[in-house]
Amino acid sequence: MADASFPGGQTTEASDPVVDIADVMQKMAEHKGCGTEGGSGKASCGSSDGPEDMPPEIWEKVKNHPCYSEEAHHHYARMHVAVAPACNIQCNYCNRKYDCANESRPGVVSERLTPEQASKKVLAVASTIPQMTVLGIAGPGDPLANPEKTFETFRLISEVAPDIKLCLSTNGLALPDWVDEIAKYKVDHVTITINMVDPEVGQHIYPWIFWEHKRLQGYEAAKVLTERQLLGLEMLTERGILAKINSVMIPGINDKHLVEVNKAVKERGAFLHNIMPLISAPEHGTVFGLNGQRGPTAQELKALQDECEGDMNMMRHCRQCRADAVGLLGEDRSAEFTTDKIMAMDVQYDAEGRKAYQQAVESERQAKVAAREDALEGLEKAGDVKLLVAVATKGHGIINEHFGHAKEFQIYELSATGAKFVGHRRVDLYCQGGYGEEDALDTITRAINDCHAVFVAKIGGCPRAELAEAGIEPVDQYAHDYIEKSAIAWFKDYIAKVEAGEIEHVSRGDAAIRQGALLSSAG
Amino acid sequence: MPYKIVASQCTNCTACEALCPNMAISEAGNTFVIDPEKCTECIGHFDEPQCVAICPVENTCVIDASVPRYTP
After folding, report:
1. Residue B43 belongs to a domain
2. Residue B23 belongs to what domain range?
3. What is the pLDDT of residues B4-38, one digit of tens each?
4. A220 versus A352: which is more confidently predicted?
5. pTM of the full predicted structure?
6. Domains in chain A, please, with CATH?
């Protein structure tokens, strides 16, 4: 077995553990800050965005990883390189035949790359987007079903751009065989998609797996898969590699069962749990798309995430991105970096310039945290009132997007403990399937129907009136200010108006989770 | 010599290429092809044809009826 150590050379001795998973998870829960369950509310919020809150090794790993830190995802970008086309299992929510440049979901990619092309692409993107800090291999198949290509890519990139963090996302079937190789390349973050820990449930999600030169089906397939996934997770934890668990919420199949999955992965040291809504539409040609299996509503998803959120972090900012996505989560700049374009680029890797840029980003983050702290004063008056607001943002934690240009809205829950990021809603149009004609405003209203207000940098008169009619208050007075600070300030006003009897606090209904196309930057 | 890949179905995922015990599969343009001279239906190697077992699209690696079945 490999030495369970961090790159810093400290080992996980029992007396002075570098990685106390329970402690780290608690710290991370606080790091996410301002949650309802943290207990110490303001205090944990206050110091949570700094390195003093968690072991420095862990902080170094997550502070600029947009997928592992909700807070970081406003500032840092990631990219995936599609070097791993082969897969060793079949999932009912995946169809490998489908590709549309305007389509965004895992397993979909426009072109696959060789490790050499991938390395060139990483350099090109890193030079163009200095806040790109993370390189992931997520398919479009399974990275560990393509081990030579995957590890050769990691090797090349660690040579030319050693400051970039490496991660991969796997279905877990082959994981136990490759954990030591993963540790060798200093891959600090591994995501395993675990949709079940009971083969009775699993047989309805996985029609088959390829195992020891045979295609296994049904219960038998799911049994092998769950055993391998959990073993792989335990092996990652032993080696101090952070593991994120992705679970697809499939109503009627594994929605209730995911609470058990959450317990099982928590026990085995998983760092973060990401419950995502099923993406399912007939035009995708997946089994679930064709048999009419629905995805969850926004409130069903949030209720499950809330239920699983105890001392474990729940990821709520996942955008279920493509295996070749580039940019901040929620944007996709992959069209700027096609193989033709990157091969024509004259790339100068400017490590110093990237460092300077990222230091500026850190200052920006600190300012944002400070602004939020000041705003929290006096919030206890909110009592039990809890509500959601939507925010139009292009990143940096600022309200800086025009209502009409927003491709997604970020959702914050406001309560006496502050503002908590709880999700996002896509509002862009489908690229096909006859939905192109639908009313854009109507789409937005449905997507944020559970929100009391929507914060924008600017909004036109017509949508303003329609939103107000739907009971959603358009708010543009905080344009270009910090999201959390502004949302809390608005919430205090709201509470004051409720107290004064000017308005009555009423709950809002549910909202639809939109699926399908994420129109790229050209859109 | 019997398996072939239906080009219109192939996703180019490469999974079959590495599994073929006879190195009979190679890339050709936007698809993969099986060399009928090399394919043994995996007889003598595995219980089931590996390309069929791993292929993510059903009915893509199929018996090529235009040539005789493999006989060991």
Report:
1. yes
2. 3-63
3. 999 999 988 999 999 999 999 999 988 899 999 99
4. A220
5. 0.79
6. 64-337 (3.20.20.70), 373-499 (3.30.420.130)
Q: What ipTM was estimated for this complex?
A: 0.94
Residue A512 has pLDDT above 50, yes or no: yes
Cβ-nearest to B47 among A96, A210, A214: A214
**B41 vs chain A: nearest CA distance in angstroms?**
13
**Which of A87, A94, A113, A213 would you mutate first to test chain B, the one with the most B CBs within 10 A?**
A213
Residue B44: which CATH number?
A: 3.30.70.20
Question: What whole-number percentage of chain A has pLDDT above 70?
Answer: 81
Q: What strands, in cross-sheet order, belong to the sheet with A77-80?
A: A313-315, A272-277, A242-249, A189-193, A165-170, A132-137, A77-80, A326-328
- CA-derived radius of gyration, chain A: 22
How far away is chain A from the Cα of B37, in angstroms, using its nearest Cα? Answer: 22
Query: How many C-alpha atoms does A18 have within 13 Å on its Cβ side?
Result: 20
User: What is the distance in angstroms between the Cα of A420 and the nearest Cα belonging to chain B?
Assistant: 41
pLDDT-derived band at A31 (thresholds 50, 70, 90) equals very low
Residue B46 within any structural domain of the chain:
yes
In a domain, B27, yes or no: yes
Q: Collect all residues of chain B within an 8 Å Cβ-Cβ radius of residue A88.
A: 15, 54
What confidence tier does A345 reach under pLDDT thresholds 50, 70, 90? confident
Among A90, A96, A213, select the one facing B11 at the smallest CB separation: A96
Give the distance from CA B70 to its chain's centroid: 13
Q: How far apart are CA A265 and CA A146, in angstroms?
A: 25
A214: enclosing H helix or E strand: strand A214-217
* Contact: A86, B12; criterion CB under 8 Å: no
In a domain, B68, yes or no: no
Smallest CA–CA separation between A140 and chain B, in Å? 9
Look-up: residue for tokens 């970008």? A77
pLDDT at A109: 60
Domain count, chain B: 1
Which of A87, A96, A213 lies closest to B46 in CB terms?
A: A213
